[in-house]
Amino acid sequence: MNQELELNIKEKISHLKVIDTISKVAELVDVKVYAVGGFVRDIILNRERNDLDILVIGNGTDFAKNVADGLGITNVSYFKNFGTAHFDYQGMNVEFVGARKESYDRNTRKPIVEDGTFDEDISRRDFTINTLAISLNKNEFGKLTDKYDGLSDIKNKRIKTPLNPLKTFDDDPLRIMRAFRFASQLNFNVDESIVKAAYEMRNRLSIVSQERTTDEFLKILTSPKPSVGLKLLFDSGVLEIVFPEIAIMAGVDQRKDYHHKDVFLHTLQVVDNISKETENVWLRFAALVHDIAKPPTKKFVEGIGWTFHGHEDLGARMMKKIFHRMKLPLHQLDYIQKLVRLHLRPIALAKEEVTDSAIRRFVVNAGEDLEDLIVLCRADITSKNPIKVEKYLGNYERVMQKVRDVKERDQLREFQSPVRGEEIMQICNLKPSRKVGEIKTAIEEAILDGKIGNNYEEAFKYLIEIKDQFLEN
Ligand code: CTP
Fold first, then answer.
1. Does one domain contain both 143 and 175?
2. I need a labelling partner for 152 at 20 to 30 A (CA). Which of 159, 173, 369, 452 fits?
3. Can you give the pTM of this predicted structure?
4. Residue in 130, 194, 212 to alter for ligand 1 test, most ligand atoms within 8 A of Cβ
5. What is the pLDDT of residue 429?
6. 413 near 382, Cβ under 8 Å?
C-alpha cells in the first residue's frame, strides 16, 4: 500500500551508520527492532530531526550496549529502572526503549515498567501520528507498520489518540499539553474528543512536574503561529491552570457606549505578529505578557471610558512570582520586566516636543534591548485600519530617528579634533596655553559646521591655514 513511501523512507535511513549497526545487531541477537515515534512522523513530514527513537521487542538496555559496542562508543547512559538507554552518535541523539505495557502509579508518577508486546507498546503511545513504526530487521527493512491509521492522520493534519483520550491522558496528563503543542508546531487540528478530554482531565496536570509543563508551554511559544496552541489551551480550560493570568485577559466589558478590546485576543495577535519577526522565545514571551496587568488595573472612568493605568509597572512587578511558579529561567526575568515596563514609553516619546534628555533616559533604560522593545511595540499594533497602522508605525520610526539624532549629537560632543594639542603646540611653537585650546576648538567647529571633513589631512591643512590669525593676536 505504501510502497513509494517505504522506498522513500529506506532511501532516507539506510545510509545512516547507526541504523546499519542496529540492523546487524538485531540479526545477531535475533530480536525485532523498529524506528518509532517522532522519528518516523518527521521523516514522513520531511522535517529535520536529530532524535532517533528505537523500540526493541526485548531488553532495550542490553540491545543498546551491543549497538554501542558495534559502533565503538562508550558514552551510553543507561536507565535500567525505565528500561531505556541513550547515546549521541554523529550528531544524532539515539534513544532505545524495550517494548512495555507501561502504566504509571496514579499518585507517585513512577512508571510501572512491565515487558510488553509490540502491539501493547504502540497502543500506549500518545497520538496516532506517533504510532508508526519502521522495521529495521534485515528481512523486512523499511517496512512500515501503521496500526492506528497514523499515516492518514498525518496526511489530514489531525491529532488523535490511539485509545480513548481519557485513558491516554490518564496514563500521562502531560499529553494534554503535548496535543496542543503538536497542533501548534505542525499546524494540525486536534480531534474534538481531545479538547473535551483535556477539559475533563485538566486538573490532573497538577501531578506533572512544573518543568515538563513549562517546557511544553515554551514549545508552543516557539511554534510558527503560537496562537494555535494558546487558543486550544484556552478553549480546553487548561490555560486557567497553567497560566491563569493570561486566561483572565479574555472577554470584553461594556459600560454605556464604552467597551475595551478583548485583551486575550489582542495578545494572541501580538504574539503571532512578533513570531513573524523573531525566533527569540523570550521576546515572544514578552509579547505574551506585556498587557498581563490590564485585568487587575482595569477601571471605568466616567466620561473617559476604560483605563488601565499603571498596567506596565504592575505587569513588570507580577513577573517575579510568575517566573518562580512556572520555574522559568530567572536570568530572563530582568529582560522580560524591562520590556513590559517600557512597552508604552515609545508611544509617549513620539510627541513632537520631547526633549533630548527624555530620549537619552529612554536609551539608557532600554539599554541593549532597545531594538527588541521596538519590535515589541510594532507587533503591538493590531488595528485593522491601515491608515492608523501606518500612523503608529510612523510614530515609532520618528522615535527611532530621534534616538539616532541624539546619539549622533552626543557622539559629536565627545568627539575631538583629529589634530591633537601636542601637534598644535609643535606646529605653532606654543607652550601649553589657552591659545592651544582655542585653535583646537576652531578646528572642531569647522568639522561640526561641515567646512572640512572629520579626518587628519583636512584638519591639518585647516590648522596651517588658520594658525597665523591666532598667533597674530
Ligand atoms: N511519547 C508518549 N507520551 C509522552 C511522551 C512520548 O507516548 N508523554 C512517545 C511518542 O510515541 C513519541 C515518542 O514517545 O513519539 C518519543 O517522545 P518524544 O521524543 O518526547 O516526542 P517526539 O514525538 O519524538 O517529538 P519531539 O521530539 O518533537 O518532542
1. no
2. 173
3. 0.85
4. 130
5. 92
6. no
